[in-house]
Amino acid sequence: MILCMNTPTYAKRVHAHVVVDVQSKKILSKKNANDLCYPASLTKKMTLYLLFDAIKKGKINLNTNFQVSAHAASQCPSKLGLVEGDTIAVKKIIEALVVKSANDVAVVAAEGLAGSEQAFAKKMNKLAQSLKMYDTHFENASGIQHPKQVTTAKDMARLAISLLQAFPEFSNIFTLRTFKYKGQTYHTHNQLLNLLQGTNGIKTGYVDASGYNVSVSIIRYNEDHQPVHLVCVVIGHENPAARDQEVINLVEPILIKRRAFFYKVINPQEAGTNFATRVPIVWGRAAVRTKNGTKLLLDQFEQRRSMSSYLKNFE
User: Structural domain boundaries of the chain?
Assistant: First the structure.
């Protein structure tokens, strides 16, 4: 979330959405999906992509420390309140971007990876082109309002899918609801983690010029125990509650139509077996609004498959 105001805008606020099947890449629902809009903090998905890529290539690791510049410390909220000269570990940078959506941390990441935010933006744009995000242009790493920093709902869905598929070892990081930094606990802006079962998160965003945005990944399983994986992007709402409700209204009928019921995990003792099993919850729309949905999402096999040694550092 970004709270900077009074910046020039050159595009109208767009109310847009797109729902994409991750496996087939088929668009299942769309509205104004190709209209230019402002990404706000959805920008940080690209910042995270470049961080994950640097880790995967061995250029940095979770314990690498980046220094805080005056430019980074001067960013507007949402922020951690970093001070010039401080250092912050990559592990905390990732947590702060996912949970707090901290603008000062985004700039620290940009400068740590590329030397300057301007150089980092060039990397972001080069990557956007390689991902076929042809209607997207970045000027900064955080999503702070800039008239030339534009995207589309379709491009943001493409980025979310690319992020999940390129770095499956990091996918569960997006389920983080809290993290601690210097003794303070920060809570996620993404309430869909609690409202929509199967949500494994991605990113929320807000600037005045765009309204409230969200890019979210949802996984449920059908009767054959096969995953139904959707990515939904909603752009331009007046408040976060309406934005989240639109996501629910868009994806829930698709999941029900595909008989992608939510599965409750039963432990071995309760099931009377030597392994965990799933029991489908099949009553109507009862799976729409329940708390702690992601805790019930994956059985032990999927948890082992999707987690990596990196994720142990985030427990």
Answer: 16-314
